[in-house]
Amino acid sequence: MMRVLFSTNAIDDRVRRTLVDTLYSQPASLAIGAACGILTSLVAAHQSRNGYITIAAIMLTAVALVRVGMGLMLPRVVDNRTRMLELLYELGAFSYAILIGVIAALTVLVDAPHEAQLLMVSNAIGYGVAISARNAGRPAIAIGQMVLTLIPICLALLKRGDVALITLAFSIFLLLPAMTSVTLNVFRVLRNSIAAAETSARLAERMQVLARTDVVTGLLNRAGLNHHLVERLMALPPDRKLALCWMDLDRFKEVNDTLGHQTGDRLLSQVGERLCKLAPEGASVGRFGGDEFIVAFEAQDRREIEEIGLRIREAINRPMRVDGGRLEITGSMGIAVLPDDGQDIETLMQGADLALYHAKVNGRNQVSFFDPSMTRDLVRRKEIEAELRLALQRNELSIYFQPIVDLETGRIRSFEALVRWFHPEKGELRPDEFIPVAEECGAIITLGNWITAQAAKAAAQWPEDVTIAVNLSPLQIKAPGAALGILAALRDAGLPPHRLELEITETVLLDHSQNTENFMAELGAAGGRFALDDFGTGYSSLGYLHKYPFGKIKVDRSFVSGVNVGKKSDAIIRAVSGMGQTLGMSIVAEGLETIEQVEAVREAGCTLGQGYYFSRAVPDYVAAMLLSQERYSLKPQRLAS
Ligand code: C2E
Ligand code: CA
Ligand code: CA
């Protein structure tokens, strides 16, 4: 029994709290008990006219009133302080119990009028028995109260020595073990059922946490984020803003592909850790699947939001140690702000997603805020995407040709094929606008094949020493069977592979993909040639020039006519030309618009030139005309413009 009584101290806090709550859970029964106690003891005091009984009755009245007051007030005032509640209850309960017992005992001892004795003794026995059931949630209190109430009566009855009274004392005494056993039984049932309910509640809580957690990073998952965001929105003070930062790791797929998924997962979890460290306190941080993360937080204004966004991006850019290796990764971020960009979570998400898309398109590793113009851009992109597939069938696309000229002789050595789209409503669309869309939606493969076939057909009509240059998108090169497709197009057109030059940009080579190497090896073996396009705009790594079979470097037009022009660009062109000479490559200067530029790049060592100074891109029949004019006139002359 003692074990059960005191083992209750070892029970779980939450179960204990619920059990203690049962003490306070029925203030009505407490009040009724108190009212009966006050009434009976005052009546007994009045009838017995005994000083001690009167004092005890007054004390009981006071204790009863205080207890009722406490019963109503305490659970609210000392919330969460179970032990304190229990102690206060104990104090009140024990004083009340002993007073009831003592008053009843006194009426017996002083032989008060029989009615008063009957009133008090029966009231005390009733109280003692009832309390042992009522307070079974805390058995030590229940049994203590019962003992304190009944023992004084037993002693008083025994002291009177009458047989009937001794018998009564004896039967009251027997009540003690009987009721104790009842109390303990009730307690066990109560405790076990509360514990079971607690366990299942905790299990449900745990399941809910799991359902809202991302296993890889331990951050919130999509469901968890949604839940958090809705709560945040509801609690957002009117003068605060809610920022939603949507982050996407640049080129994470390459990490996964080259180093494996496990390393990828560890990288993700490190990113998660950094985000948690850097996000403002109380921010919701989650992973939205793949390599996308969300950080949502409250802020005062957009400046604060931008600062935090930039800080997060910088932290992600710092190299990470994963599996003993050093990994560098960058992240792009799109931010939308509530209430500026939308009033609900869904709009905010769309805004952040669009802003992220812009950050990526603008060259990655950027932080961009949502702007309504992004919605318009997206609509246009969607239109282009939808119409691009039809454009080929409707004959809206054509290939134009821009000459590439020998800077020594002024003769056309080659033409670059540039695609044009004449849209019936939108007018002429620039390839800069629709090629990226075609790359994104995969249409570039069909489009690219068509361009190569058309360009080859046109070139087959030209003199044999004139080559054709075709731009290739990274996706085209990585597509399975890419080299075979191009060779088939050349065969169909009757153009020998050595007259085709493929212009590729450095980005294709960045990931060191086996597909790219195979592609270049296959085409190279068949006689095809390669030019490194837009040199100077990216990493401009000279390592690629050794590794891959480039015959030509095209120096980007920004070095000729753009912001980079000056002493420095001149020095770069000279260095590249020098290297070209050593490696046996020709150097093309792009974007030549004036005679001064032509002179400058020739002086700097470029062998070939391309630009409006010589000619814009022209339709195939004009290209053919330029060639025949050149070959049948004696003096080199300026071409069409
Ligand atoms: P790119 O390969 O660098 O092509 C050269 C671009 O510079 C062409 O623009 C050309 O019209 C322009 N350009 C030539 N000379 C001058 C000049 O003197 N001044 C100025 N300001 N610009 C000049 P275009 O045709 O609009 O093409 C833009 C880009 O679109 C190309 O850049 C290329 O990356 C892509 N592109 C064009 N056609 C194709 C294609 O058939 N396939 C693929 N994959 N991409 C293409
Ligand atoms: Ca090009
Ligand atoms: Ca170029």
Structure at a glance:
With 641 residues, the protein is an alpha/beta fold.
Any overview of this molecule?
It is a single chain. The chain is α/β, with parallel strands linked by helices and 641 residues long. 60% of the residues lie in helices and 15% in strands. It has 24 helices and 16 strands. The strands form three sheets. It has an eight-stranded mixed β-barrel with strand order 8-9-11-12-13-14-15-16, surrounded by five helices. It has a five-stranded mixed beta sheet with strand order 2-3-1-6-7, sandwiched between helices. The longest helix has 49 residues, at 163-211. The radius of gyration is 45 Å and the shape is rod-shaped. Ligand C2E is lined by residues 402, 417-419, 430-432, 435, 448, 451, 471-473, 503, 533-534, 557, 591-593, 610-612, 617.
Give start-end ranges of low-pLDDT stretches: none
Structural class by secondary-structure content:
alpha/beta
Shape: rod-shaped
Helix content: 55-70%
Termini, distance in Å?
Answer: 108 Å
Strand content: 5-15%
Summary tags:
rod-shaped, about 60% helix, about 650 residues, alpha/beta
What's the topology here?
Layout (H helix, E strand, L loop, with lengths): L1 H6 L5 H12 L2 H22 L2 H27 L4 H28 L4 H21 L4 H22 L2 H49 L10 H14 L5 E9 L2 H8 L1 H18 L5 E4 L4 E8 L2 H16 L2 E3 L2 E3 L3 E8 L6 H17 L5 E3 L2 H22 L3 E10 L5 E12 L3 E3 L1 H11 L2 H16 L7 E5 L2 H5 L3 H12 L6 E6 L1 H4 L3 H13 L2 E7 L7 H5 L2 E6 L11 H17 L2 E4 L5 H9 L4 E2 L10 H13 L9
Parallel strand pairs: 6-7, 9-11, 11-12, 12-13, 13-14, 14-15, 15-16
Antiparallel strand pairs: 1-3, 1-6, 2-3, 4-5, 8-9, 8-16, 9-10
Helix pairs in contact: 2-5, 2-8, 3-4, 3-5, 3-6, 4-5, 5-6, 5-7, 6-7, 6-8, 7-8, 10-11, 11-12, 14-15, 16-18, 18-20
The structure holds ligand C2E and calcium ion (2 copies).
